[in-house]
Amino acid sequence: MTEDAGALRLDKWLFFARVFKSRAIAVERIEAGGVRVNDQSCKKPGKLVRPGDRVTVSAHGQIRALEVTALGQRRGPATEAQGLYHDLDAEGGGTGV
To answer: Where, by residue number, does the polypeptide cross the bilayer (predicted)?
Structure first.
C-alpha cells in the first residue's frame, strides 16, 4: 500500500504523534487489535490515516480517542506531536479499561 500526499501509515502516525515510543511497539499493538480507525477494528499497520479520521487506542489500561488533525513528517518534540491530533477524551473525560 503506497502513501499518498494526504495520508500516512497508521503505525507511522502513532509513532509521530508519540502515542507509542517506537514504530515496533505501535505495530505490535495494532496487530494485537488494540487500535481502531473510524470505529472499525484495524490489524494492519499499513492502513492509511487522513486528517479527520478517528483513531482509538487501547493501551496501558486506558482507552484514548484521538482525531487526526495533521500527518507530520517526523517524530518531533511533544509540543509538535500534540499538533497532530485533537484529544477527544479531553472533551468528555478519559475512559479506563
So the answer is: none
Number of other residues whose CB lies within 10 A of the CB of residue 20:
19
Amino acid (1-letter code) at residue 78: A
DSSP state of 57: E
Which numeric CATH code is attached to 8-96?
3.10.290.10
CA atoms within 13 A of residue 42's CA, in its CB half-sphere: 24
Residue 69 corresponds to which cell in the numbers above? 488533525
CA dist 58 and 76 (Å) reads 23
SS3 58: strand
Q: Of the candidates 26, 33, 12, which has an alpha carbon nearest to the alpha carbon of residue 81?
A: 12
- Report angle CA 34, 74, 36 to the nearest 5 degrees: 15
State pLDDT tens for residues 45-92. 999 999 999 999 998 889 999 999 999 999 999 999 999 999 998 765
3-state secondary structure of 53: coil
